[in-house]
Amino acid sequence: MTAVPLDSFRAELERLRADAESALSAATDDTAIEVARVEFLGARSGRLKAIQKSLGGLAGADKPAGGKQFNEAKNAITASFEAARNRVLSSSGLQSESAIDVTLPGSPVRLGHLHPLTRTIRRVQEIMGRLGFESVDGPEVEDQWHNFEALAIPAEHPARDPLDNFYLAVARGADPLLLRSQTSTVQIRVMENRDPPLRIVSLGRVYRPDTADATHYPMFHQVEGLLVEPGITMAHLKSVLRLFASSFLGGDVHVRFRPSFFPFTEPSVEVDMEWGGRWVEMGGAGMVDPAVLEAVGYDPDTVSGFAFGLGVERIAARRYGVDDIRDFYRNDVRFLRQF
Ligand code: PHE
Q1: Which of 62, 65, 234, 269 would be a feasible disulfide site paired with 257, CB 3.0-4.6 Å?
Q2: 262 lines ligand 1 (CB under 6 A)
Q3: CA dihedral 210, 175, 159, 231 (to 10 degrees)
Q4: What's residue 170's pLDDT?
């Protein structure tokens, strides 16, 4: 077998090197570079690999020179390959130092804020606080006594119907528990633990079997107010509600009472407020029924009191001009961002 002449080996290497350089300098994207890499530097069937195999065909004395030339060509092609890759990367902006332009304005951090219902609750607490009403909390999971019986709503009372729902599973024989249907429960809890005089407000969630529509939802919030002292009358009730409404809505707000019925107040009224030429129902109120005062151990001959319960969503909707309370719960930032 005749040996491969060193000259033709070198000529072959030179041709390969020129081909590789022109392919790489023409490459403008990753794909073209990869195609060139496989063609020239590919470990199995790359053209460089093929030439490396023909090294073995050189005459023994030519082998060191041939090997040296081979290595030079291989290094040169590898360097061209790196150069081409950097060129493509930087033109796509990935590695360029100018990819971050520090003179551009930064992206603003958008600050959140309190939910309009939370804002309303805090504002109610603040206004009522100025009138001397302390803010207290009560549990959302209630027993029958606080949700119904102590409020003069016995088991067979028709007033239970619209409220009676959302019972929790309890052990057989245990007292049933339910999600409270009104914040009036807190009146009882406070009166059981404290002596008059008493001025409290309690704000929180209540639950009812209501079908959701623009003014109803199975969960909503109430403000409960309770004042018990000697000599309290309906005039105090109306004054407090009017002061509250005027502070909350701003301007001169009128309050109207319509006769109503609640088992735990006597007399009982529905409370409407007029603001901007429109009357809106805001909740219920009345004088605490003497039977309730007795049930918590107060003497109805020495103290009297009033109580009211207003819908937080309703007063918030009124104040912010919202006409569907479901918007408060949808968590759509396009809605919430407006407040
Ligand atoms: N708890 C009553 C309701 O939810 C409202 C109310 C509160 C009425 C206090 C009278 C006194 O409808």
Answers
A1: 269
A2: yes
A3: -120
A4: 81
Q: What are the start and end residues of each CATH 1.20.58 domain in the chain?
A: 6-91
**For ligand 1, atom 12: residue with the closest CA:** 284
The b/e string for 88-98 (b: 16+ C-beta within 10 A; e otherwise) is: beeeeeeeeee
Structure tokens at 44: 């199995």
Residue 142 has a CB neighbour count (10 Å cut-off) of: 24
Q: For residue 277, report the phi and psi dihedrals to the nearest 5 degrees.
A: 80, 10
Provide the 3-class DSSP secondary structure of residue 280: strand
Q: What is the amino acid identity at position 238?
A: K
What residue type is 339 in one-letter code? F
What letter represents residue 57's amino acid?
G
| pTM of the shown model | 0.69
Cα–Cα distance list, 71 to 75, 125, 266 (Å): 6, 84, 105
Q: What is the mean pLDDT of residues 269-284?
A: 90
Q: Which two tokens stand for residue 161?
A: 């119907």
Instruction: Report d(CA 160, CA 148) in Å as an integer.
Output: 8
Ligand 1 geometric centre to CA of 284 (Å): 5
Tell me if 307 CB under 6 Å of ligand 1: yes
Give the confidence band of 185 by pLDDT, cuts at 50, 70, 90.
Answer: very high
Higher pLDDT, residue 44 or 124:
124
Q: Supply the pLDDT for residue 77.
A: 92
What pLDDT is stored for residue 1 in this prediction? 63
Phi, psi of 228 (to 5 degrees): -130, 120
Mean pLDDT of the chain: 91
Q: Which residue blocks in the chain are alpha helix, DSSP H?
A: 6-26, 30-41, 47-54, 63-91, 116-130, 144-147, 184-193, 234-249, 290-295, 312-320, 333-336
Is the shortest distance between the CB of 184 and ligand 1 below 6 Å? yes
116-336: which CATH topology?
BirA Bifunctional Protein; domain 2 (3.30.930)
CATH class of the domain at 6-91: mainly alpha
Query: Which residue of 184, 282, 310 sits with most ligand 1 atoms within 8 Å of its CB, as the best mutation to test the pocket?
Result: 184
| Location of each CATH 3.30.930.10 domain in the chain | 116-336
